[in-house]
Amino acid sequence: MKIVVDLTRCQGYAQCAFAAPDVFAIQGDEALLYDSDPDDAQREKIARAAAACPVQAISSTVRTPGTGIRSLERTCPPPALRRR
Ligand code: SF4
To answer: Whose CA is closest to atom 2 on ligand 1?
Structure first.
């Protein structure tokens, strides 16, 4: 699977690092490091990390078995559902 973190939204809250420590890490005060191509076995932890992110900065794509097709797993709520 592939992961993208929108670093313009990321505030370094580190919730993702607690939920999926093998994928996300905070270095220094606020620098987020992450594995952009983690093993599919991390999928559940990554979903928890994305759900825990207070600014919904994490999105991922998954490969459909047998097709090689990747689909986007949106973790960001549509704009109408975001808090203002
Ligand atoms: S939980 Fe969200 S805001 Fe916090 S470090 Fe991770 S991606 Fe950034």
So the answer is: 53
